[in-house]
Amino acid sequence: MNLNEIIWRSNYQLLAINSNDNDFSNPFWGSAFFLAYKKSMWLITANHVVHNELFDLTVDGFGQEYPYKYKYFLINNKNNQIKLEELTHLLKFSFFYKHNHDIFSYEDLKKAGITNLNLFEKIDVALCELKNVFPETFLTHMLKDSNGNILVKEGLTKLAIPSENFTKPTINDQYYIYGVVKNKYNDEHNICRCNVMHCNLQYIGEEGNLYKFNSPTTIINNEWHAVSGSAVFNQDGKVVGMAVKISLAPNSKFIMVVPSKTILRLIDYVIDSKE
User: Which domain holds residue 54?
Assistant: First the structure.
């Protein structure tokens, strides 16, 4: 597989809707990826994807519970329909939060070995373990470049990322984030997707508990909306982390990424806390 295939087949679109109804007219959108780690399969995304309207990085404190419950879906691309209801697969599990809280507490993070953060920082990570073999097959939809050339054809089976493909970033490598943005709907919940390819990102360094990357072009919000939760790849197809935040300052080029090592530490803590 070439780099485009590796990235595109590893990216999933995740939707969250209020569990009190089945309204697909205005779901939360984001990205996610599957991670094979310690003989288990984990679904990884950003916490603000699965609790979008209530996630606030400026709120002090930990362990608050959100008042709403959500249903989560992944787009499977198994047919040519454009209705969301016919393109999605319901995830019959919830995301892990210790004691049903929606964020990891400061004590949780310390126990997980994550200490380079202040008391009021949150880790924008949501994860869940698949208890059984996942019954659904997920397929790609077509990826083209700006000239209309097909880079990845539709109908390829999507992949999980093995933890062996996690690595650290270096200033000498190039980095890539792919995703799907600008989702639009009509009254019948039809979907119009716009693929995005953010290429040749550069690693700057660590800032707090996150990695900081620089885009070769100025950040345009609409071109990044719903990319949160995407894995960040280098030119060798290795993953250095998960995209969670962009800078909205004028002429900004910064992207913030949760390190792959942080994701593994959180999973380790989840495993240890169950034993």
Answer: 3-274
Residue 143 near residue 10 (C-beta atoms within 8 A):
no
Predicted TM-score of the model (pTM): 0.82
CB-based contact 19:51 (threshold 8 Å)? no
Dihedral (Cα; 81, 34, 29, 232), 10-degree rounding? -120
For residue 264, the domain's CATH number is 2.40.10.120
Burial class (CB in 10 A: 0-12, 13-18, 19+), 39: exposed
Tokens of 247: 């800078």
- The identity of residue 121, as a single letter, is E
**Residue 7: partners with Cβ closer than 8 Å, 6 or more residues away:** 176, 178, 231, 233, 237
Q: What is the pLDDT of residue 132?
A: 60
Placement of tokens 């990044």 in the chain: 224
Give how many domains the chain has, as a whole number.
Answer: 1
| Mean pLDDT in residue range 91-95 | 46
